[in-house]
Design goal:
The protein is an alpha+beta fold and 553 residues long. Helices cover 33% and strands 29% of the residues. It has helices at 2-23, 29-32, 64-68, 75-84, 91-95, 133-149, 192-203, 213-219, 234-240, 313-326, 329-336, 338-347, 351-354, 386-401, 460-467, 478-485, 499-509, 513-519, 521-525; strands spanning 56-60, 99-109, 123-130, 154-159, 162-167, 176-181, 185-189, 228-233, 252-260, 263-271, 299-304, 362-368, 377-383, 405-411, 414-428, 435-450, 453-457, 494-498, 527-535, 541-550.
């Protein structure tokens, strides 16, 4: 069992290595624009070895040495050295001469022997494309001979004309099996049975992933020139996690990474056999509500029609995804949206029922982080309508029921309604012994009308910034313009995150993010912003993308 966990650790390290190679190095692409970095066809050839019942597969579709030219800080060189340090293998001499343009890692099976009585033993498959089969065979022989010299017991067998080499492992090392299959790939696995299954998958095409209708449909969604791709069989991923999902709408997911003149675009498609209804009509341009969001915003969310968000397929996807990853969607939602959760608690309201239900037109939501404060300022802009007028009246009534006063204010001749609370404060009297009391007015929220929009804010300073915004709104921000330009139109709106402004806030709300930053240091050090959106017109798939804007773009 310990050896199994050890091998899992090795595989996880390998997966992280692939992501570091595929993502962190992209930062340097446009600064150097090397001619020898050729875009791939976008589909992994190693899929023929992977079972269509495999939970997950991830592929790097470019030779790491083509990315090496982008590695100004030698992160890739350090990574290669650390990965092979204990094996006695020299990457440049033993691997570089034959390594081709694909590295694929797959979780081949949830249980190698398919015997539930002895516990779950995950099976992993690593496929390396080779451009010189003979040299790669020499490498496999060298690799296992060094393990034998270190004390491992080797087993050699012929299986359907292919030479398989495996070892029973030393007590403190991982068991491993390897083979060169045909003229195209070198395979490694954590058990020879995984290799035999991989060979069977090639010789019986109806068993492999390429024969899966879900996979075939998913690969049609891949953009040209993708440099990395991942495919997830969502029901089997849930089974691996030991979850029984109450709502299983989406069956599979495919993710691709592609270069863009301004950064990196990660596109994903979720596939389902059911008809999908988008939460709102697609937008052909950014909503006008964004003109009231200051450029200082760390997070901005915009779109139209929040009234049916709770019943939309996008929300169902969120529930399924968070339940699959975390076991529960509730905790992660409360962490990511803590400022909104605090508003709900303080006001005693339910956001979907008391606010989102009457937002049928355009909207924009923003958070403005402050270094001195743990809770950021917030802004909510909504397009006027009859339902919005009723909604504002309802919010005033809720404020009154919570002991707040509705106080009229004027800022630069603009009429403002403020929800205020009277509190007492004590201070030492300058005249006589004892304490005196003073009454303070605290603003708990404000709202006003500008143009065709109703605007809500958390405090006076933020409202004043909006009233004097002039040409300093987020839609005037060049970084925001570049980010949304990378997202296809029409779409369902944007979630824009300025990483430099929001990093501290996010780290407080999602502590595991700090670990991700350590693992992907070159990437996060140069991340400027990320933008999310959903788009596409297929009624049986939900397509979206995340654009990562980098500091050199």
């Amino acid at each position: 069992m310990n050896r199994q966990r050890s091998f899992i650790g090795f595989i996880v390290a390998g997966a992280i290595a692939l992501l570091v190679i595929a993502i962190a190095s992209f930062y340097w692409f446009f600064a150097k624009s090397p001619a020898n970095l050729i875009a791939s066809t976008g589909q992994p050839g190693a899929a023929i070895f992977v079972s269509k019942l495999s939970p997950a597969m991830v592929s790097l579709l470019a030779n790491p040495d083509r990315l090496q030219a982008l590695d100004r800080e030698e992160e890739l060189s350090k990574l290669k050295t650390s990965l092979f340090a204990k094996s006695g293998i020299d990457y440049k001499e033993d691997i570089q001469p034959w390594l081709g343009d694909e590295i694929t890692l797959a979780m081949a099976t949830l249980d190698i022997d398919r015997d539930p009585e002895n516990g779950q033993q995950l099976g992993y498959l690593l496929a390396l494309a080779t451009k010189q089969p003979e040299k790669s065979r020499e490498f496999v022989e060298l690799f296992f001979s060094k393990r034998a010299l270190a004390g491992a017991n080797l087993t050699v067998e012929q299986y359907k004309g292919i030479k398989l080499i495996s070892d029973n492992s030393q007590p403190e090392q991982d068991s491993l099996a390897g083979a060169v299959v045909g003229e195209g790939f070198v395979l490694f696995a954590n058990d020879p049975k995984v290799l035999r299954d991989a060979i069977n998958n090639v010789q019986a095409p109806d068993l492999n992933l390429t024969s899966s209708p879900e996979y075939q449909k998913a690969t049609k969604e891949l953009p040209k020139g993708g440099l990395a791709v991942a495919f997830l069989n969502l029901p089997i991923v849930a089974k691996w996690q030991g979850l029984e999902l109450s709502e299983q709408l989406y069956n599979s997911q495919i993710i691709s990474l592609a270069l863009n003149p301004k950064g990196l675009l990660a596109e994903t498609t979720f596939l389902t056999a059911s008809e999908i209804v988008p939460p709102s009509a697609p937008l052909s341009k950014p909503v006008g509500a964004l003109q009231y969001i200051p450029a200082s915003a760390g997070l901005a969310i915009s779109g139209s029609n929040l009234s049916n968000l709770g019943d939309s397929d996008l929300t169902k996807l969120w529930r399924q995804a968070t339940a699959t990853i975390y076991g529960s969607g509730e905790d992660v939602v409360s962490r990511l949206a803590k400022p909104l959760a605090d508003v709900q608690k303080r006001w005693g309201i339910n956001l979907p029922e008391d606010i989102f239900s009457w937002v049928q037109g355009e909207y924009a939501i923003a958070l403005l982080p402050e270094k001195e404060q743990t809770t950021p300022h917030w802004i909510f802009v909504v397009e006027k309508s009859e339902s919005v007028e009723k909604g504002v009246t309802r919010l005033d009534a809720i404020a009154s029921s919570n002991g707040l006063s509705i106080s009229p204010l004027n800022i630069d001749q603009q009429k403002i309604s403020a929800w205020t609370e009277l509190t007492t404060a004590t201070k030492k009297s300058d005249v006589k012994e004892g304490e005196s009391f003073s009454i303070e007015t605290k603003v708990r929220g404000l709202h006003t009308s500008l143009g065709n929009y109703e605007i809500f804010t958390s405090d006076l300073e933020t409202m004043d910034e909006i009233l004097t915004i002039k040409n300093n709104s987020i839609i005037d921000n060049p970084n925001f313009k570049d980010s949304i330009a990378a997202i296809p139109l029409p779409n369902q709106g944007y979630i824009y995150l300025d990483w430099t402004k929001s990093q501290n806030l996010l780290e407080r709300q999602v502590p595991i993010l700090k670990l991700a930053e350590v693992l992907g240091k070159p990437f996060f050090n140069n991340l400027r912003s990320l933008t999310l959106s959903s788009y596409g017109t297929d009624t049986r798939s939900l397509k979206g993308g995340v654009f990562f804007q980098l500091n050199n773009s």
